[in-house]
Amino acid sequence: MCWAHAPRPGVGGLVPAVKSAAGGIVLPIVAGLLLAPAAGLSGALLFHLTDLATVEASLHEGVLPAVLGLITGWSALHFRAYLRPFHRWLAAHPDASTAPAHLHHRLRRFSRDFWGLFLLYALAMPLVFFLSRDTLPDGQALGRFLDFLLLQLAAVALVGLPAYFLALDRLGRLASRLGLDRVQVSLKSKTLLLGGFVPLLCYGILVSFYWRDTGRLSADLLALWGTLAVITAAMTVLAMRSMAQALGPVQEVLGRSGASPHEDLARLRPQSTDEIGYLTQTLGRLFRRLGDQESHMRAVVDTAAEGIVVVTEQGEIDTFNPAAEQLFGYLATEIRGRPLSWLLPDLADEGLAPQVTSGEREVMGLHRNGRPIA
Predict the structure, then answer these.
(1) How far apart are CA 353 and CA 347, in angstroms?
(2) What are phi and psi of 2, to 5 degrees?
(3) Which among 36, 114, 207, 315 is least buried, having the fewest CB atoms inside 10 angstroms?
(4) Measured in Å, how far apart are the chain's first and last C-alpha atoms?
């Protein structure tokens, strides 16, 4: 009896690829945190919430740059520590395609950690800026502080979103090695952010700037702003509905409990004329072909004159053809899920996966009645 196993593929390029992906995640975050102060202070000057001399004085005192540098440096260290468990697991399991549950849970934390740090900056920057000028206790300064805070939140959103999507892109490349146990950031969420939130925020900033610059808001301007807001919201809702329709067949399959047979997956049909619809159609055809190949392979295995035993990565018997039943004396229904050591004790120890070999190996089998099989 022979046992064969394909050699493991080389993994020499894994570590550089992972390090490159990690650098691509941290760099946009640091760049976003460095650009956010420039955008926030420029907006404050534009909205006349402060003047250039005050900004220069705050920067020269060093308190504001020190706080911003502290937040940026801590963010870089935090996300490097966040990514370190992924690197260690990938280095220890270069051939694995699905990470353990605790790494998937860590992956889901990315959005929360990202926006938590940007929110920390948005809250800290106005407070440090005004306290450094000793203007916060005054009632009028308090009003400017609240306006300044809202402006920083808007600046963080507009600057943070490009950094967020760049980091998500790099994180997606890392996920190709880790696998996914669920959708992390849905396409509908991205559509809502880009198609709805960002335009509405820009409309609000423009109206606020006009009101501060002229001191009035005409009915025509409010009507125009309201019309643009309604059109933007309607287009966003329609785009999300269209995307939900396109993703419907795939989400129906993903929402089922347990594995779906090829027959069910082969019934995937497109529900849109875009790339998602074309991909859904391609998946349906692929699963139909896989179903046909599986049926053909099963027929070949069942009619083979030699005993064929297929095991899982854990060393449990998965396929046991009729010739193997005659050879070992077990029925497929009673041996499936049992360890391979029941049949080939020299090849696999009890409860352990079979030994990996780079070529063929002759081993002694064991019949159900205890008789050795050469």
Answers:
(1) 9
(2) -120, 150
(3) 207
(4) 7
